[in-house]
Structure formats: structure tokens, C-alpha cells
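pinging the channel bc i need a second pair of eyes. not urgent but kinda urgent?? the chain im working w is below, pasted from the shared doc
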Amino acid sequence: MNDTETEMRGLLAAATADMPPGIDLLDGLAKARRRDRARRTRGRAVLSAGVAAAAAAVTAVMLTISSATPALATVTTALTRTLAQNYHLTEQDSFFVIARGQTHNSVPLTCTIAADPVHHLEASTCTGNFSMREVDGYMYLDLLPGTNWDRVPAAAFDRPWPPNLNGYATGATPQQMLSAIEKADKVTVAGSASGPGWTGTRYTISGRLSSTDTISGTLSVDQQGRARALDLTTRVGTSLGVVQALTFSDFGAQVTVTPPPADQTTPTTVSHLPWPWNLPNFLF
């Protein structure tokens, strides 16, 4: 009880000294104080309940957002992050044609690659003594040992995947794979994954690129959110496709690429390249 209330009680007692028995103004004051205290308590309870409800609503929204984060975003983010740094890559490509219910496969082409995607630098060596370099806006391909390097503008390879069958059929580059995977209809967690010096999660991918073309495969993402192993099958129509297996490593490795001597290069076009870059010369 504060001084003001004590003084009020004293004045009321003096003013009501001759009031008949049974009438107690002080009791009315006490009741008023109890009603006020109860009102404040209910207000605090309502306020606390409101705060708790708001907090619960925010938590529910955050949990919904978290649980709704698609695996597709994880996969595309991993590839985007990987293609923003230097890396080494082992790649195996094989083409197939389905005719009369039978699948005919090409001889697998295996390449080891050093790439700096940001600066458009790449050097690769493949089985069969095939070699390729990308530097200064050109692709240099040594497809037939003992002959000059074919020089093709690198932009000629930057076509939508899958390619027009009237042109050429190369395996998709990692950049083209990323563009294709971004259109995937379904990406799900398939389980754990691991490799030399890393562990992570494997995802399955499937999607339709057009009314006739589809992709399917798996991507393993390490705990740092980088792509480690990508296996992708692209079907072009009902009878043609390519299977590619990529393994990424040595992130941040220095990549230096120099073009072949000018007197050892021959300007050409993609359509004039031999197998496996030109579909008409496709061998099985």
C-alpha cells in the first residue's frame, strides 16, 4: 500500500465515523482494487497468449519454409557453386541408338579435364588420343593424331541441350547439364554418398526437357555443397541418347591453357568435325 492510498483510507475513515453499521466504503475500495488487479492480470495473460501465438505462427512458417526447400535447389546450387571455381574432372561418355527394340552403344569415350569455367579455360585428354583445349574464345580439337588441330569458335558449342539432330550430337557440358537439370520435374534424396576425402548426399534426378526429350540420373553433393559425381542420361526422342558420368575433384587447382601454334591449326565448323562430335559420322 502506498502513501496516497493510506491517506485516502484515513480520510474515508474520518468522514464515515457516524455512518450506520453495515455500510463499509473501505470494503468497496478493496473490491475496486481487486477488480483492477484482476483486470491487469487478464490483460497480461491475453498479451502473453498473443505473443506466444505470434511466436508459434512465426515458428510454423519458418518450419514450413525449411521443410519445403526443394532438393532441386540443393542440386542446382551445388552445380552452380562447382562451376564458379576451378576443378579437375574425369568424364566418360557413351552414345546409344535404339533400333527395332535393341540398344546399340558406342565405344565409351573417357576424358580427364582441367577446367577454369569462370575464365573459359579447359584442357582435356581422351581415350584414342583425342585432345581438346578451350582458350581465347576458341575450342581446339585434336581428333585425328598426326593432323592439325581443328579450331572452332567456342560459342558454336553453346547450344541448347539436347541438340538439333540435324546438326551435331556431343555430350552435354556441365553448364548444359545445369541448364537441363534446372528443368527437372523430380529431384529426391536417394541416400548417403562418399568418395576420396568427402562424404555427402546422393540425389536422383528426372525430368522432361521437351515433349520428346528427357533426362534422368543422380548427383552426389558433398558436405561443402559442391557437386562430386554426376551421372546423367539424356534421351533425344525415342531412339537416341547419351550417357555421361562425371567425377569432380581438386577444387581450386590452377589451370593454365595455351593455344596450339597457329601453323598447326585449321579453322573449321562443328558440322565438319568427325565422330563423336558430328552426328552423321556417329559410329557404334
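so The chain has four helices and 13 strands. and The domain at 72-281 is CATH 2.50.20.20 (outer membrane lipoprotein receptor (LolB), chain A). — does that match what u expected or am i reading it wrong
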